[in-house]
Amino acid sequence: MADQSGGFTNHTNNNRTSSSDDYVIRPVPQRDHVDNVGDTSVGSDVSLRWLHQLYLPKKTPEVVMLKDGMVQYTSQRLYPNVRHLSPAKRERILVTGGAGFVGSHLVDRLMWMGHEVIVVDNFFTGTKRNVQHWIGHPNFELVTHDVVDPYMIEVSQIYHLACPASPPHYQYNPTKTVKTSVMGTINMLGLAKRTKARFLLTSTSEIYGDPEEHPQKETYWGHVNPIGPRACYDEGKRIAETLTYSYMRQNDVDVRVARIFNTFGPRMSPTDGRVVSNFIMQALRGQPLTIYGDGHQTRSFQYVHDLVDGLILLMNKNYTEPVNLGNTEEYTILDFAHTIRDQVLATTTTAAGPMTDVEIKLLPAAMDDPRKRKPDITRAKKYLGWEPRFAVKQGIQETVDWFKLQQMEGAI
Ligand SMILES: NC(=O)c1ccc[n+]([C@@H]2O[C@H](COP(=O)([O-])OP(=O)(O)OC[C@H]3O[C@@H](n4cnc5c(N)ncnc54)[C@H](O)[C@@H]3O)[C@@H](O)[C@H]2O)c1
């Protein structure tokens, strides 16, 4: 896992555009290729090959494109193989927001582990396509439901993810975002209280706001603008955490809180306006990659399988304080733009031949956009035995492949 960058940086870019000619690129460090994910201590270990059949299948037998713009769906005969668990070991697990980006990968892994999984989703930002490979499986159930309304079911674990996570989506209807975080979390905590289920909240690094402490430890209380355009999400998650610990203290609910930092991977919504999906979509369309601000703001991106590993470990270990889950390797947004552009250019051929170049364009900074964001993951290492394994480059390769597959299938 050596950093092969050999030094860096020339960010002096006055004409507000950037190309590989006027910019010294820091190659994203290479790590050994990851072939297996998960952790044997909780039974989540699985080969990447098994996961690939779900989101990067060699062929997609369910959908046949016919002439005249018609499409035919056939039912899949065989489900992906999953582990056999005795009924005594099998958990009944509710995943709210399980049809979303992170939720669907979590569902894949929980299904692989042999558990019974119920997904509750209102499909605001998620889609059935993300979990279609499980529909009809005896261990799986998909329920269309909005968590703002109570939901009754008997379960032993609840992963509470339901909440739009990208700025354009959560700002589309800010009041609804607050309701989802507040009423949705009250409803799911009430369910956990009644059924004595263990409850895990997917909180966010956004609760730290524009941080004055760097990197951010879980003990940092944050620096959040309570009335800005991001407040519906940031403050919504802060109150969701408050509710979680109130139910723990007052009602003995067994809780876990994950503070998730930027995550990317296959099944990100192409319209979510997040950095990675934006850059990939723009590069695939041959459009300029747009950066808000000077591009020197830093982010740490983790690959989705690392996050899923962390969530499952957190749920199954005995630690109730909030835990940061994120990658500590920090890059400027400009670094990311170059890495993604180079990956797309290296692997994409258009009708006119190989793609040659796309511009990188700087636009005015977005309001309340944090300058720096990087997790301190000492807690996760110490109490979960977790740290990210994926190099950003491997994750980007898979994500670009997935977006290209979607494009070929006409899904985006
Ligand atoms: N992806 C990230 O980088 C990131 C970072 C920090 C925190 N998180 C948290 O992780 C969780 C999942 O994020 P994601 O990136 O998969 O987002 P996503 O938008 O892809 O998934 C959210 C899912 O919740 C569903 N949903 C939204 N409102 C709902 C409601 N009222 N009732 C029922 N379902 C509802 C959506 O339809 C979607 O399927 C969120 O709680 C988010 O705050 C994600």
Automatic annotation (TrEMBL):
CDD domains the record matches: UGD_SDR_e (cd05230)
Keyword field: Cytoplasm, Decarboxylase, Golgi apparatus, Lyase, Membrane, NAD, Signal-anchor, Transmembrane, Transmembrane helix
Biased composition (Low complexity): 9-20
Location of the region described as Disordered in the Swiss-Prot/TrEMBL record: 1-38
Signal peptide residues on this chain, from the entry's feature table: none
EC number assigned by the record: 4.1.1.35
Entry membrane topology: Single-pass type II membrane protein
InterPro entries: NAD(P)-bd_dom (IPR016040), NAD(P)-bd_dom_sf (IPR036291), UXS-like (IPR044516)
SUPFAM superfamilies noted in UniProt: NAD(P)-binding Rossmann-fold domains
Main location: cytoplasm
Pathway(s) annotated for this protein in UniProt: Nucleotide-sugar biosynthesis; UDP-alpha-D-xylose biosynthesis; UDP-alpha-D-xylose from UDP-alpha-D-glucuronate: step 1/1
GO biological process: one example: UDP-D-xylose biosynthetic process
GO MF entry, a single one: UDP-glucuronate decarboxylase activity
NAD(P)-binding domain residues: 94-399
Domain of life per record: Eukaryota
Family: Belongs to the NAD(P)-dependent epimerase/dehydratase family. UDP-glucuronic acid decarboxylase subfamily.
Name of the protein this chain belongs to: UDP-glucuronate decarboxylase
Species this chain originates from: Absidia repens
